[in-house]
Amino acid sequence: MNVFVIASLLISCVIAQQHPRQLQSQKPEEKPPQKQQQQLEQQQQEQQQQQQQKQLQQLQQQQVQLFIPPFLIGAPPNVTNDFLQLLATAPYRTDKQMEETIERWVARQTITIQSAYKEFKKLALEALAKAEAQHQKIIANLSREAKTADARLIAVTKNSTLTGLQKQMQIQMIIDQLPDKVKEELQKAFQP
């Protein structure tokens, strides 16, 4: 699993949990026929997904601009920019696709960058293992409902068939559907 995709996804999850969107629905005075109601709900869902996609793209562009990985510190600007452009494609790729793309990119770089990347990847995987262990400790103390919600969120993040954008959209839909009590419990549990 690609560390960059995981980091981006975790950042997106934290931001989404800190600023949950309130679903706005307008209730008509009279209930429309079922077919019209379904069409209306579908249109609202499509509009919400488009808005979420646009917000996610803007957020990820900002994150990419602020993120220069340690293995590229001191690299020429054109190399750094090339890598950042590659990272900007993460929302449209699966974890495996992104990891393969990064590995191919690194293989074309200098030995210095390749060595620094290898060390960075090793440290990132160690940090990920520690984070997963910490996550297990945290969820042990959650309510059954919060554990279930957490399991659903983790299942999305580990789904290798989804792109980063698809994962973010599914995570946001899960969060939006959670009762406020569960949202608050998860936010409190995972705050640094």
Description:
The chain has one domain (3-17, 48-190). 73% of the residues lie in helices and 0% in strands. The chain has helices at residues 3-18, 34-66, 77-87, 95-107, 111-139, 144-157, 164-177, 180-190. Helix 6 runs antiparallel to helix 7 (164-177). The protein is globular. The model is unreliable at 1-29 (pLDDT under 50). Residues 34-44 have a biased composition (Low complexity).
Unreliable stretches: 1-29
Please describe the biggest sheet, giving its number of strands, its sense, and whether it closes into a barrel.
none
Query: What is the H-and-E element order?
Result: HHHHHHHH
First-last Cα distance:
24 Å
Number of strands: 0
Oligomeric state of shown chains: single chain
Radius of gyration computed on alpha carbons: 19 Å
Structural domain tally: 1
Beta-strand share of residues: under 5%
Overall pLDDT score: 83
Q: State the helical fraction.
A: over 70%
Global outline? globular
Q: How many alpha or pi helices?
A: 8
Structural class, by secondary structure, is mainly alpha
Concise description?
The protein has 192 residues and is an all-alpha fold. The protein has 8 helices and no strands.
Notable traits:
globular, 192 residues, single chain, 8 helices, mainly alpha, disordered N terminus
Give the topology.
Elements: H1 3-18, H2 34-66, H3 77-87, H4 95-107, H5 111-139, H6 144-157, H7 164-177, H8 180-190
Helix pairs in contact: 1-7, 2-7, 6-7, 6-8
